[in-house]
Amino acid sequence: MNQNTIIRFDQVTHQFDQTVVLDEVSFEIERGKFYTLLGPSGCGKTTILRLIAGFMEPAAGSIYFNGEKINHLPANKRQVNTVFQDYALFPHLNVFENVAFGLKIKKLKKSDITSKVKEALKFVNLEGYETRQISEMSGGQRQRVAIARAIVNEPEVILLDEPLSALDLKLRTEMQYELRELQQRLGITFIFVTHDQEEALAMSDEIFVLDKGVIQQSGTPMDIYDEPINRFVADFIGESNIAAGKMIADFNVSFAGKEFECVDRGLQRDEPVEVVIRPEDLTITEESAGKLQVKVDSQLFRGVHFEICCVDEFDNEWLVHSTKKAEVGEQIGLTFEPEAIHVMRFNESEEDFDKRLEGYSETGYGN
User: Fold this and answer.
1) Both 181 and 69 in a single domain?
2) For the chain, how big is the Rg over CA atoms in Å?
3) What angle do CA 237, 241, 245 make, to 5 degrees?
């Protein structure tokens, strides 16, 4: 175990009735980093948060905090605080009283409470708001109050359960910057739950991508985006073009009826693979100059780029993000660098894979 590890899950399983929501999950959380648990609804991310907080106990496996097993440790004995999705602020209390609530329960001196609350409010840029009623606060201000209430107790870990989901897009983006800056100033561990991929990529030191109670992949935002480990991760994180292919040899892969140079190696010869190319890595060119020849099927203007959907002769769809406009119905070429190709091992059986490639052999696919 890393000496800097603050939380460790060891083969943790949890279920509701007969439904398994976490399936022998193991991971480590290091001190002082911003972690994001990312995945679709029902993947198990909020369950992990609740297990760390002590709101439930695992059915099997062990949870460690600073090296000590905490499976049965009550929530109020843990050095963590939670910022909930709805913030869970008390509407009948003002800002000061909301932030001071936990300190009063601990029976701290009045002078210590006042000092700590003012310091916490200053930290989240709410100095002078002590007597303001919660009903008079904006969504972003309420979130800051909830964070102040969490940090005033000086926890070692702050858990955030989709705290930005109720905000409008502009405020949500602003709060992403504020949360990230706050975490870096505090220097403590944040564990953030979201289903928003862009949010996770923008804010995190490390991301855990979950699906069906299993961590599919973990790593830095760049690792997850540039090197997805399977189809689910590639499809869930950003937009992807995914095509069936075969590995011809190291640094050589075939898909869409042609062979291409790539940067991947270590797979078996003729091993079934899936090829990922991100939309922004495809460049529009003349049809004759393209590595792929495609027909433009549709086009949308997204402000900073055009989103162009194309189809090749094998009915593969190719999504392109380009500042260059195309015309629906025209034939164009697409080109890309070897580094833009990411090769993933194919997860289906070879029989299923061969069915998906049916008809390709007649055009020389993989030969």
Assistant:
1) yes
2) 25
3) 120
Q: Same structural domain for residues 213 and 245? A: no
Measured between alpha carbons, how far is 210 from 47 in angstroms, rounded to an integer? 11
Shared domain check, 202 and 178: yes
pLDDT band at 84 (very low <50, low <70, confident <90, very high): confident
Same domain as 283, residue 185: no
Please tell me the distance from the alpha carbon of residue 342 to that of residue 276, in angstroms, as a whole number: 5
Whether the model clears a pTM of 0.70, i.e. scores above it, the answer is yes
Per-residue pLDDT at 361 exceeds 50 = no
Closest CA to 245 of 295, 292, 308, 309: 292
Please state, rounded to an integer, the average pLDDT across all residues of the chain.
Answer: 90
Instruction: Give 182's Cβ-side CA count (13 Å radius).
Output: 20
Domain boundary among 198, 226, 254: 226
User: Contact at 8 Å (CB) between 298 and 254?
Assistant: no
- What average pLDDT does this structure show over 298-321? 94
Q: Is residue 150 part of a domain?
A: yes
Q: How many domains does the chain have?
A: 2
Please report, to the nearest 10 degrees, the dihedral formed by the alpha carbons of residues 169, 175, 180, 186 taken in order: -160
- Do the Cβ atoms of 354 and 242 come closer than 8 Å? no
| 215 lies in the same domain as 351 | no
Is the Cβ–Cβ distance between 192 and 36 less than 8 Å? yes
Provide the 3-class DSSP secondary structure of residue 355: helix
pLDDT of 354: 57
- Strand ranges in the chain using DSSP code E only, listed in sequence order: 5-16, 19-30, 34-38, 60-65, 68-69, 80-83, 157-161, 189-194, 206-211, 214-219, 241-249, 252-255, 258-261, 271-277, 283-285, 292-301, 306-311, 317-322, 331-335, 342-345
Q: Domain span at residue 104?
A: 5-226
Order of strands, sheet of 342-345, starting from the edge strand that comes earlier in the sequence? 258-261, 252-255, 241-249, 271-277, 342-345
179 inside domain: yes
